[in-house]
Amino acid sequence: MTNETDQNTQGSGRQRTIEDTEYVPLEDYSLARGLRWSWMNYRLMMIIPGIIIMIVSALIMFLGSIFTPRTIEFSINHDGSTWSVFFLYTPPPFDLKTIIFFIVSYYISVNVTLIFQNATLTGSIAVADGEPATLRRFLMPKNFKVMLGVTTWLCIALIVGGILFIIPGLIALYFMQFALPASLADENPTVKGSIKKSFALVKAHRWASFLTILTVVALIILGYLLFYVGIVVTGPLASLFLAYSYFSLTGRDIYSVPTEDTVPLNNDAN
Q1: Average confidence score pLDDT of the chain
Q2: What distance in Å separates the CA atoms of residue 33 and residue 30, rounded to the nearest whole number?
Q3: Is 234 contained in some domain?
Q4: 11, part of any domain
Q5: For residue 1, is it within any domain?
Q6: In whole angstroms, what is the distance from residue 177 CA to residue 179 CA?
Q7: Number of Cβ within a 10 Å radius of residue 52
């Protein structure tokens, strides 16, 4: 009975815990295969969390124009020989109403963004784990408290790194890139354990980790360059690729859905 349990643990990605440090060899990681897998498992409904975030942001901006009024004056004058353009922006008054609206809107915006970013990565991990890609999986967050703790430490590291001439912040992002997947994919995760595992994984596979963070950042930047709306499409692709990379580098079987006879992607290479 014990041997059978051990075999199941080795063959299933769902059995691993935060303390697992058995990583596959570097050659099993493939950037091209990861991008192909991400695109193959991409579904149009994955853009819905991003659309919700954009709608909430637009609604907050609209309410801000009502509750915190501001004026914009624009005029063009011509005196016969030259043209003059005048532009005057008057910010909203710095009163109690403006302060309260800013605090409330910031709180709502940050939490909505974190919840649906969490849900997108949760759905991507579920897809890699062989579960059906349903809309519900991309709208329901998981382990939100742990994820929030990891995100908080990551933001602190980026802010401090930015103050220290940017480079330390990029180094922190590099070593903490797998902390979020660890907080969502592993059993009984903790903030400290997820961050420690990310550091250990990056140290074990420096080049593959560099390719991963480079690809994820490139996809996000590409989304913003496409008139900001593109991030709705490239964001889920980045989440899928991050899930693929985490599963691949930690030796977990990567599944390709929606085929009914799902076969681990890692086994195809053997």
Answers
A1: 77
A2: 5
A3: yes
A4: no
A5: no
A6: 6
A7: 17
Range of the domain at 70: 16-268
Determine, yes or no, domain membership for 102: yes
Q: Which residues pair with 86 in a beta bridge?
A: 75
Q: Give the confidence band of 209 by pLDDT, cuts at 50, 70, 90.
A: very high
Band (pLDDT 50/70/90 cuts) for residue 176 is: very high
Is the separation of the CB atoms in 177 and 216 below 8 Å?
A: yes
**Structure confidence by residue, pLDDT tens digits, 231-264:** 888 989 999 999 999 998 888 888 865 443 344 4
Give, in degrees to the nearest 5, the angle at Cα 233 between 14 and 59: 105
Q: For residue 83, what are the β-bridge partners?
A: 78
State how far the Cα of 234 lies from the Cα of 248, in Å rounded to an integer: 21
Q: How many domains does the chain fold into?
A: 1
